[in-house]
Amino acid sequence: MTKTIMKHTAAVLLAMGMMTSAAQAEDMAVSGDIGAYSQYVWRGVEQTVNSTAVQGDLGVSMGGLSAGVWFSNTYPAGAPQYAGKDVVEFDWTIDYSGDIGDTGMGYSVGGIGYTYLYDSASNFPELYAGLSYGPVSLTGYYTISDSQSKAYLAGDMWIDLGAGTSVAGFDVSGTVSYAIWKNDVTNRPVGAVDTFKDGLSLATLGVSKDVEVAGTTMTPSLTYTYPLAKKMADGNKYIYGVAVKPEFIAGVNFSY
Question: CA-CA distances (angstroms) from residue 173 to 74, 189, 202?
C-alpha cells in the first residue's frame, strides 16, 4: 500500500471514528449491501474478464458527511507469489454532500482511494466534485498522483454526465463519459502507439428495480456499456490504454 493511499485510508477510518463518537449528538446512519454480478466492468474496462464478481460496501453517514469502503474481486494476480489468487479491490471514500440554498441544486465533494490486494502497484487516489439538479448530475474525477505501475497517472480526468428517472416502477439511468488524458502521452514509452485520446469515451445505460424480501431490499439490475472512443488503426477502441468493447452486466444486490 503506497504512502498516499495509507494516508487516505487512515483519513477514512478517522472520519468513521469521529462520526461514531458523535452519534449521540446527531443521528448516524449505517448502511451496507452485497451482491453478485455477471462481471465487473469499471469505466468500460473489464476487471474480471467475463467471470462473476462479488461486490459489497459498508458506510456510515451523519448529516452531509459520509465515509465508506467498497470491495470486489477483480483480475488474476500477476505476481508469482500470488499465483492462483484474484486481486481484490477496496475503494475507500470520504464524501460531503449538501444543497445549494433554495436553488434546487445539490453538490458533492470527496476523495476515493483505490487499493488492490495482491497488486498494490496499481493503488491510486482521486478527488471528485459534482453538481446535481433534479434527475441530472455532472461529476468530475481527478487523479492526484501516479500509481506505481503507471496504469493511472496524475492529471487525468474522467467526467460523467448522468440522468435517471423511474419508468413503470423501474429505475432507469444513463451516463455519458468524457476523458482527458493529461499526462499519458508524455509519460508513455517513446514510440508506443497513443491509445489515450481525449474526448467522449463511454455511454452507460442501466435499469434496476427494488423488491422488498423479508425486510431486505433486493435489487436485480442490468447494465450496458458502449465505448464511444474513436477506433484506432487496429480497429479497437481504447480506454485507459486497454482495448474495450460493449458489455452487458447482470446482477442482483441485497441492501441491509
Answer: 25, 38, 14
Looking at the structure of the chain, the number of domains it has is 1
Range of the domain at 160: 3-255
**Residue 180 is placed in which grid cell?**
482527458
- Cell numbers 455532472 label which residue? 138
The per-residue pLDDT for range 167-209, each reduced to its tens digit, is 999 999 999 999 999 877 666 666 667 888 899 999 999 999 9
How does strand 216-227 pair with strand 29-37? Answer: unpaired
Compute the distance between CA of residue 45 and CA of residue 4 in angstroms, rounded to an integer: 24
According to the model, what pLDDT value does residue 1 have?
36
Q: DSSP 3-state assignment of 81? A: helix
What is the dihedral angle through the alpha carbons of 35, 38, 41, 44, rounded to the nearest 10 degrees?
-140
Could you tell me whether strands 216-227 and 199-208 are parallel, antiparallel, or unpaired per DSSP bridges?
Answer: antiparallel
pTM: 0.88
- Whether residue 185 contacts residue 153, with contact meaning beta carbons closer than 8 Å, is answered with no
CA 230 to centroid of chain Cα atoms: 23
Burial 235-246 (b: 16+ CB within 10 A, else e): eebbbbbeebee
Q: Which residues contact 69 (CB under 8 A, 6 or more apart)?
A: 12, 57, 58, 59, 90, 91, 92, 93
The CATH number of the domain where 44 resides is what? 2.40.160.40
Judged on CB neighbours under 10 Å (0-12, 13-18, 19+), 106 is middle
Strand blocks (E) in the chain? 29-37, 41-42, 45-46, 53-62, 65-76, 86-100, 105-117, 124-133, 136-143, 157-167, 170-180, 199-208, 211-213, 216-227, 237-239, 242-244, 247-255
